[in-house]
């Protein structure tokens, strides 16, 4: 038996999804900001440089998506 999803249920699901995406984006932004700060620390090892680059990229992705 097929169940029909109402427009109201779809809107509720969309609202929940949008809230979760915004929350996830905020968490990633916070992590990216913290990791980008490693750039100013010395001495630097290759792992720190990779973390800084990854954080910068994550931040740029969020900005490009308007998040």
Average pLDDT, all residues: 81
Count up the helices.
2
What gross morphology would you assign?
A: rod-shaped
Q: Considering DSSP H and I runs of 4 or more, what fraction of the residues is helical?
A: over 70%
Summed up, the domain count is 1
The strand count comes to 0
What is the CA–CA distance across the termini?
40 Å
- Computed over alpha carbons, the radius of gyration is 18 Å
Largest sheet geometry: none
Q: What structural class do the secondary elements suggest?
A: mainly alpha
Low-confidence stretches: none
Order of SSEs: HH
Beta-strand level of the residues, as a percent range?
under 5%
Key traits:
mainly alpha, 67 residues
Description:
The protein is mainly α. The chain has one domain (7-64). It is built from 2 helices and no strands. The chain has helices spanning 7-36, 46-64. The mean pLDDT is 81.
